[in-house]
Amino acid sequence: MCSGFTPDRWLSACSLCPRACGASRAEAVASAFCGEAADLRLAWAGLHFGEEPPVTGAGGSGTVFVTGCNLRCSFCQNRQISQEGMGAPVSRGAFAGICLALEKAGAENINIVTGSHAVPALADGLREARERGLSVPVLWNSSAYESVTTLRRLEGLVSVWLPDFKSMDADFSAAVFRARDYPQRAAEALLYMAETSPLSFGPARSGSTEVLRSGVIVRHLALPGRLADTESVLRWYKENLDGRALLSLMTQYTPIPGSPAVPFPDRFTEQEEYGSLLAFLEQLDIGDGFLQELNPDDEWLPDFSREQPFSSDLARPVWHWKTGFLPAVR
């Protein structure tokens, strides 16, 4: 086990996320739903230029992909790390060093992806990074299947939230996430995030753009053949968060060869569906936000076995689970 993380009761009977699976995270072979033991494991870190404009800014978002996941969607594009265990253990000091290296490389922020099952370790590492001089905002990029009690451990560390709101349909959530309570838990988490982090912008580290210093961007991936679910999510957003957060509507669903069957058409979103999304957005008159252009190809599927998992125009690698820091940043 990597040394340097604060001991916690979650090690013996995990209740970090709403599953409260009670697994012993102290064991070498993880029995938790997330697939992870006590060690913090990471897959990749680098500057990402494909996030929303107030996240990317001029320098890119300093993105850290955490191994494991407490939701494990059947259609996950990051299956290699969320469900297949790709990644390497890092100590608290090593994680803090990765954050500092990202800031040195020009990152506008530190963007932690899918860390819900590793909150104590990540919180310890972020505190050390702050003590060692980290000054950029920290973003929490998650599925929103969160325990509010656990999220409170991140107070004073995370100021920007990038949660997905995947579905308002309990039956669908049970089928694809094995989490019938997903809609309720996600809604609770989103409201907590908006209450604790009001929208605030500041200048980017370079250039004339502004970046988000505090606030929430609620992401929703529209799934082919499930526009009614998207309408339910957007209607909830309009009633509960419009004016207090930003909306990001994504259309990048990509069929993944060899993945489990899904209870919706396993294809790209079609132009007619995209037009319906535009019409519904106009009908709701949602305030500020972002809409992803329809671009049906597989460029969104990363390969984390490579030091550069993304297309070169989308990301600049800094650290990889196989090699550690890459030569350009050593």
UniProtKB/TrEMBL annotation:
A Pfam short name: Fer4_12
Cross-referenced PANTHER family: FORMATE LYASE ACTIVATING ENZYME, PUTATIVE (AFU_ORTHOLOGUE AFUA_2G15630)-RELATED
Keyword check for S-adenosyl-L-methionine: yes
The protein, known as: 4Fe-4S cluster-binding domain-containing protein
Database matches in InterPro entries: Aldolase_TIM (IPR013785), MJ0674-like (IPR040085), Radical_activat_CS (IPR001989), rSAM (IPR007197), rSAM_sf (IPR058240)
Gene3D superfamilies to which the protein is assigned, alphabetical: Aldolase class I (3.20.20.70)
Family: Belongs to the organic radical-activating enzymes family.
CDD domains (UniProt xref): Radical_SAM
Cofactor section: [4Fe-4S] cluster
GO molecular function, one term: metal ion binding
The entry's keywords: 4Fe-4S, Iron, Iron-sulfur, Metal-binding, Oxidoreductase, S-adenosyl-L-methionine
Source organism, top-level taxon: Bacteria
